[in-house]
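Now for our target.
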Amino acid sequence: FLRPLFIDGLACSSLCEKDTLYLGKCFTAKPNSQVYSGSWGDLEGVIKCQMEEAPHYDLGNEMEPRKEATAFNKPTKGTSVEKFREMILNHLKARVGDQANLLELAAQVLSIADANKDGHISLPEARSTWALLQLNEFLLALVLQDREHMPKLLGFCGDLYVMEKVPYSPLYGITLPWVIEVWIPAGLRRSMDQWFTPSWPHKAKISIGLLELVEDIFHGNFGSFLMCDVSATTFGYNDRHDLKVIDAHYIVPEVIFQESIRQQRCDVDEDCLYGADCLTSCDLTKHRCTPEVTRPNLAKACEALKDYILRGAPSDIREELEKQLYACIALKGSAEQMEIEHSLILNNLKTLLWKKISHTKDS
C-alpha cells in the first residue's frame, strides 16, 4: 500500500510503511464493504473498509445506502479546528437529532481525530475522521465506547479501520454445505443451530448483554437507534461471555431511518422494509411509508434469543422464562408508545436471568 497524502491515522504507518498491519482472510463477498481478519503487531483484529459508502441514503427497492466514491475532500484546506468542530456538531445533529450531549460526542470525535496524540489535528487526520463519521458502525462505536457491547476501535487509516477481534461469532448457528442444507427440515435446522452453544449460565450472561444493548440504544445519551437485523450473525461474544456487536451496518439512528423511510413509495407494507427487521406500514392514501416501526428492538431481540436461552434452561425457571419471552416477542408498535410495558418486560427478563446466575462464577 502507498499512503495518499490526503489521509492519515494511527494505522497508516503500519499499513503503508512498516508492513506490520496484515490483512488475512476475507469475510465478505460485497465489493463495497470489505471485512478481513488481521493482525497489527501483537494485536488480533478485524479490518474493515467501506469502499464507496456514502453519507446519505437513497432508498430504492432494497433501501441500500447510495454508493459514491469517498473523495477525502472535506474539510477543505484552511478549515480551522473550530470550524471542523461545527461541521461535526451539525453532522451529528443530522444523524441522531438535537441531543443534549452532542458537545460531548463532538469532543470524542476530535480526540479520535488527533490520531498521533500530538495535540494537533492535521488536515489528513480530519479528512479521515470525517469519512469514518459517515459510517453507522463508527458512529455506534462512539456512542457505546464506554459500554462493553461494541468492540474497541484500535486505529484507522482513511476510512479503513481496525476493530478489536471478537473471538466467538456468530452468536449461534452452524454452517452446512448447501447440498445438505436443502434437505434439512426447518425445525431440525433451527435445533441444529443450538448444538454447539456455551453452557446455559454463559448463555444467560450473553443474553443479558443483548438486553442491555437494547437499553443502551433506546433513548440513550445520544439518541435512539433501531436494530434492523437482529440475527445471530450480527453478534458474538468474548472469553468472558460479554456480548459484542460484530456487524453494526443495520443498527441505524432512528432520526435517519424515519427521514428516509417516509420518502419511500409503497403499495403494500412489505415495500416499507429496511434490513431484515425494520418494517413500517404503507399509507395507501399517499403511497408512502409511515415512519414508525411495527416492532420495537426488544421484541426482535427476544425472538432471536428464544431458542438459544430456552435450550438447557433450568426446570425451575423454564416455564416463567418462556412466558416472559413470548410476552416480549408479542410487543408491537414503537417503544415510545409502550415505554412502561417495554421497560417492565425488559427488567423482568434481566432479573430472572441474573437471579439464576448471580451466585455462580459464570456471572
In short: Confidence is low (pLDDT under 50) at residues 52-69.
